[in-house]
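Predicting holo structure, adenosine-5'-diphosphate bound.
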Amino acid sequence: MKTKVICPGSFDPVTIGHIDIISRASGMFDHVIVAVLNNLVKNPSFTTDERIALLKQATKEFDNVEIVGFDGLLADYAKKRGVNVIVKGLRAVSDFEYEFQQALTNKKLNPELETVFLTSNAEYMYLSSSMVKQVASLGGDISSFVPQCVHDIIIERLK
Ligand code: ADP
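Done. Tokens:
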């Protein structure tokens, strides 16, 4: 059976840390669905359509990666798509408690759903979308934080 997985997140905007996880998942599984959260609690800086467009551009070399937006519960979306595995990146101890809580909640809501964690690449441990936004808004150089092909679009939007 082919293994389909979901990589969920807000991707507001995509960073090279996200691409590292997506590319590793793409090499490990048959099909990777990158699911962009639409119902964010926090105010996104980029619309869902913009976040999807940036991800599509940054992942076009991977032919088993699909980018979609989704609303509602991840556990329900996974069931709807026939997916039993969620893949998440784990940066530091700071991610652990939240991710553990999410994984257990998702399993409670959909007992067939497993969460697999990939350890962050040591080079990207510190990297987050909010850090990218903060640096860009203060006029800093984000060229080593975001995929090169979407750098200019991100800078233009965050100006
Ligand atoms: P953030 O806004 O914190 O950058 P997202 O909610 O968009 O993150 O994250 C989506 C997924 O990507 C999560 O599993 C998150 O742990 C992972 N991720 C984000 N940044 C990195 C990174 N630098 N290294 C590894 N995984 C990461």
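Residues 4-126 form a domain with the Rossmann fold fold (CATH 3.40.50.620).
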